[in-house]
Amino acid sequence: MYEALGRLVNRGAVLTLPQGDTTRYAPVPVSALLDGMRHIYENAIDAAHESLSRYEALVPLEQAWNLEGRDAILGRARDMIANARDELLLAASDRTLLDLVPLLRAAHERGVRVRVLVSGDAELDFGQTVRHPQAESAFQQLGQNIVVVADGSHALVGGTGADDTAVWTGNRHIVFIARQYIWQEMFTQRVSERLGKELWPVLSPEEHKAIFGD
Fold first, then answer.
1. In the chain, is it the N or the C terminus that has fewer CB atoms within a 10 Å radius of its CB?
2. Cβ contact 97:123 at 8 Å
3. How far is CA 189 from CA 20, 65, 90, in A?
4. What domains appear along the chain, each with residue ranges and CATH number?
5. Which of 181, 126, 188 is nearest to 156 (CA)?
6. If DSSP codes are grouped into helix, strand and coil, which group holds residue 109?
7. Whole-model pTM above 0.85?
């Protein structure tokens, strides 16, 4: 028993009070214990982040790196959003967007320019939001696709389904194309709103074929 108590004392979970030849033991208050554990784990995580980031900097961003599965893809998107300094461009469906809203809001509040192309009905009360018509999204088979461009320096392009894949890269040519895709779509939808009608339905069959290949 005393061995177990000794381990608890060393871990900061039990207090001791020597009284003559005996020692009294008492549990540390739960709030104090959990705060202490949080401090220990946070310090460990900070140290690990600092250490591992040195190796991350060695990743050749000019290459295109493949990601597989929703968790890995959204994890990379969250990391890009959390570390953005100046600008974030995002194109995503409602379901994907809802997973990222808290981080997007935090980015906006720290001064990052947030521009979002929404494929669905989601509403955002911050940043610049442009809605992509659902009929056009369905026609282009956007589904659960996601495009994220952070600070014009790296991009994530792919799907967010359970078995989907995505590409993350700092290749300036791919980043340029991804950024232009979002900008052009947002520009087109703003023009459509100014004209008071969607542009996609008024395209001729020949224009559809030239643009979409259908």
1. N
2. no
3. 81, 31, 15
4. 2-56 (no CATH), 64-200 (3.30.870.10)
5. 181
6. helix
7. no
